[in-house]
Amino acid sequence: MTEVAFHFGAPDRLAYTCRLLRKATATGARLQVRAQVDICAALDAALWNLGPTDFISHCDAAAPDEVRSRSAVLLIDSDAPMQSDFPILVNLAEDVPAGFEQFQRVIEIVSTDEQDRNLARLRWRHYTERGYTITRHDLKNRGEG
Predict the structure, then answer these.
(1) pLDDT category, 53, cuts 50, 70, 90?
(2) Which domains are delineated in the chain?
């Protein structure tokens, strides 16, 4: 069964996502980040602006196969079909992704914004109603926000 984790309390979702991606890709993980087009563009820019020793190979779903096969992170529009060759899904979109159960793990990153928190509660309910156990990470308690 897919592991589901919520990371709550990120004051800057993009900065936190970059840190999470850097940490995960350092272990060899391949991740797919699902978000609205404008958020994907902002995350792409943020990833390019990491320090030279923190570079994370990434591309979008329109990249040629040879680029995608060498990228650790795939940025995908929330309206596009997801790719099965990236086993971890980071969801920055407002809804639960259709087909999320094809992933080994789903990570939901939630900001401190009240609307984002309310939408996260709906996603949480969706997962729990389907029998998924959720791991909760409170970033404020860990000083990672």
Answers:
(1) confident
(2) 3-96+116-142 (3.40.50.10110)
